[in-house]
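FORM 7B: Structural annotation worksheet

SECTION A. Query
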Amino acid sequence: MADTRIAYTALTPEVSAFPKGVVPGDELPSNHALPLELRSNPPPKLRPAVSSRWDSVRASVSVFLKDNAGLLLVGASQFFFSAMNVSVKVLNSLDKPVPTLELIWVRMAITYVCSMTYMHWQKIPDPFLGPKGVRGLLLFRGFTGFFGLFGMYFSLKYLSLSDATVITFIAPILTSFTGALFLKEPVSIKEMLAGLCSFFGVVLIARPPFLFDHAPAIRSIDGAPPDHSETATPEQRMLSVIAALIGVLGATGAYTSLRAIGKKAHPLHSLTFFSSQCVLVSTIGMIIFKVPPVIPTRISWLAMLLLIGIFGFIAQTLLTMGLQRETAARGTLAVYIGVVFALALERIVFHTSPSALSIAGMVVILSAAIYTALTKKKTVTRSAADTALEQGLLAPEEHEDDPEPR
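SECTION B. Predicted structure
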């Protein structure tokens, strides 16, 4: 009988013997002839080089996502905001356009139902009235938020999506001034200069007739859904810019009240007050001004009407979650990604591109806003409660009988 014994070789750090065909890191076949020592005490499996590289990449991606979770959430919210605004603009451009007040009512009614459902599910205290001590501020936030939303939606009638989006970026700059005036927050000369530059950018976008010859606001590329901003008169364009600036003032009031509220209320308290006030004011407005509701006659248009509410709720939730996990400067920078989505969707849906003056105005406003975000100094030290809130925006309360969210 043939001798199948294998000579013994001592395995030391300097000497390692492996049977022919066996490579460190490979699976050892069960039927492979192994030395007695290896059978009783097999070497540990070593991962292949390819697997190690994949694990390294996966670990790097995991660290990146963890470190930039807030930034990514804010960026994702801007996509949903842009998609929502596309639906608003299409419905504004129908032969029988859907009234702005009706668009606000539909979006905020859906937002209110979703917010209240979640608050009851998570048993967040005071879902209807909010915590004591900030109820007046919550009412003010909702009221000013309505005008911010109305101005934005109305401006989309005669402004391109990108123009209307960029004008809203003035709100964070104005919030610096209102914060200094009402909340005694510091404001620098740099922020004042950024505000003046932003105003100049708005002038380039608005192009008032007494300063500019009438020129098309956008360049149409080929056939696309109707877009009134392409044929708007200078007067109509100026009206939309004024509406957009009213929206900026409303958003500034909302941002200022949110700063005053701070962590004294759950973020969904703010969202429910915002949505309920919008539903109430838009309902009263439609009754007083005798605005009849318009039901779109095509299924696609009706779907857009519903998507306004769904996209709006998703965007608002992602934005609040992201800003709670991110610093103010980085969070603001992520908001400016919205103009990229606006330009892309404007090109895809309406087959248009902004004029040279509009692009110049966008660059001025974006530069001023980004400069303000990057140079703003952090003056308030984060408290332990602020740090704890990073564990999750929509997490249920630790103590359900506690009137204030933790």
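SECTION C. Observations
The chain is about 60% helix and 0% strand. Residues 378-406 have pLDDT under 50 and may be disordered.

SECTION D. Sign-off
Analyst initials: ____
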